[in-house]
Fold DUF317 domain-containing protein.
Amino acid sequence: MAVSERQLAAFAAKLAGQIPFDTSPRHLAGPGAVRHVTHGLAAAGWSAVSDPLGAEIVLRSPDHRHRLQFDPQSNTSTWWRLRAEPNDTEPSWYAEFGELVPAEVLAGFTDALIAPPVHQQDPWQPVTSANWHRDADDAAHSPDSMCHIARRTLNEFHDRPSWYIETREPNHGEFHGPRIWHAYFDERTPTRLVGAFLTALADRSPLQRGMYDRTGHYNAVQEPSSLSPQQVADAHTARIESLRARVRSARRQHTKPATTPVRAHTTQSAAHP
């Protein structure tokens, strides 16, 4: 499955009917458009294996190793689930995301899955660069203290920690406020993917939301955007085209045949016995 011009045009048409507002911080921006995630995966050749007439979306990678499920009718707080099956070099892993996770932040994770970044960095680096407070070696929180990151070892049988991110209402005295959304990465999730999610989450640039779009919390700050709806659509299309090119390049590198050195051959003389 690939993203068609018709699908991109439909997204642009939807945006054209909205007045965009710059919305920040990102962890309070609200869910946004699912297409930020699904269009990126489709550009990498992921195919839909769900009922096209149902609300649930299930996408599968070309090698059948990865499976993403989006279920807006879930009875749990988890609307997104991504599973990776084991292969010859990597173990299985699992990640999940709540209803109000911004789609652009989740897309940072899925983009890194299908088009790995050239340079990998410490997952904490984008967080500290954005002036998030490190509570300890394995925890941090946003400047407004509403979004929390924790790296936890579940028990003595897990030698690697899992990651848990959640956004909550402001604290009520000693108690945490109600949860707004969460993200969870098990202990086998590649660190580079966790880092990509945290990079997109801590990015201080605003996300665009329509005037009546749902945000994660009333503390979200919204201001009229300097971008027009067409510019927002063009940026989306440019990202999809960039992803498509990066995926093609990676596949060419992966399938490039190995070259063997040419050996010199000594021709025997016909007169040689």
About this structure: Confidence is low (pLDDT under 50) at residues 264-273.
